[in-house]
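subagent[fold] <- orchestrator: predict structure for attached chain, return tokens only, no commentary.
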Amino acid sequence: MGRFLSLSVLFEERESQWKWICSVVYDPNEDTGRLGLWEELNQVKYGWGLPSRVLGDF
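subagent[fold] -> orchestrator:
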């Protein structure tokens, strides 16, 4: 089964209170288990309902 690591951080610009999410991801280059990564990223994006960016090695 594939394993992945992800870290999602909520950023807020204090003056304007503008918020966005940055997710940093590592996923081995294997198809096995990749669905779990995309499901988690989907939950972050739609669960928080904020603009987001994904960075990493996947």
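orchestrator: received. Logging for downstream: Residues 5-57 form one domain. The chain has a mean pLDDT of 84.
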